[in-house]
Amino acid sequence: MSEPERPGRLVVVAGPTAVGKGTVAAYIREHHPQVWLSVSATTRPPRPGEIDGVHYFFVDDAEFDRMVDDGELLEHAVVHGRASYGTPRAPVEAAIAAGRLPLLEIDLQGARQVRETAPDALFVFLAPPSWDELVDRLVGRGTETEEERAARLETAKVELAAQREFDVTIVNDDVERAAAELVSLMESQAR
Fold first, then answer.
1. Collapsing DSSP states into helix, strand and coil, what is residue 71?
2. What digits encode the pLDDT tens for the residues 26-69?
3. Are 172 and 24 within 8 A, CB to CB?
4. Full-prediction pTM beyond 0.85?
5. In this structure, are residues 51 and 66 in contact, taking their beta carbons and an 8 Å threshold?
6. Can you tell me whether residue 129 is helix, strand or coil?
7. Which residues is 103 bridged to in the sheet?
8. DSSP 191
9. What's the rounded Cα separation, in Å, for the pair 43 and 57?
């Protein structure tokens, strides 16, 4: 008879815009199959290469509002004054119950909401090596207009100031190293 699975500890990773949360999460998805990555719902259009149901669940405003009204989201927020993002509750709860290593890669607003509903989760802040590097990453990805970049940089200043709200900080100076540090931390929390 096998042992019953021990509930997993939810790990939440957040950080400022363009710090590389999505890049670190994608690396973990590809190289660390033991980690269960939550897939968020969003009302923003897909970026090049993003796949519905893999990177995000792309939904319209009406469907997103229905999900909020029906209590289907663990957290949700309007980000950068434009698109809505949220974490579907049921898959996260199932991963925790199954003893998986569950990881939420979300924004600061979402992390604050999760702290209210799951205070026993581990909150990890992904930080840039420097402000200049963060600016270079945002400009370099070329997915936003000049106006959107300016708004994201203003948001990033506020988000960086929230670092002290987190349990652990990992500097994303190298994607592979940051991902390995995060996975190692998750595995140590599961023991």
1. coil
2. 999 999 999 999 999 999 999 899 999 988 999 999 999 999 99
3. yes
4. no
5. no
6. coil
7. 11, 37
8. -
9. 9
Please write the tens of the pLDDT for every residue from 109-165.
889 999 998 889 999 999 999 998 888 877 777 677 888 888 888 888 888 999 999
Task: Compute the distance between CA of residue 99 and CA of residue 88 in angstroms, rounded to an integer.
Answer: 18
Count CB neighbours of 85 within 10 A: 22
- CA-to-CA distance for 37 and 189, rounded, in angstroms? 16
CA distance 27 to 181: 12
Residues sharing a CB contact under 8 Å with residue 65, sequence separation 6 or more, in sequence order: none
- Cβ atoms of 51 and 2 within 8 Å: the answer is no
Taking only Cα atoms into account, the Rg of the chain, rounded to an integer number of angstroms, comes to: 16
Question: Which of 11, 25, 84, 13 has the alpha carbon at shortest distance from 54?
Answer: 25
Instruction: Order the strands of the 83-88 sheet from edge to edge.
Output: 56-58, 40-42, 83-88, 73-79
Domains in the chain, please, with CATH?
11-190 (3.40.50.300)
Residue type, 137: R
Question: Are the CB atoms for 134 and 145 separated by under 8 Å?
Answer: no
> In the block, which residue shows the tokens 């021990």?
6
Tokens of 133: 């590097």
Q: How far apart are CA 30 and CA 15, in angstroms?
A: 21
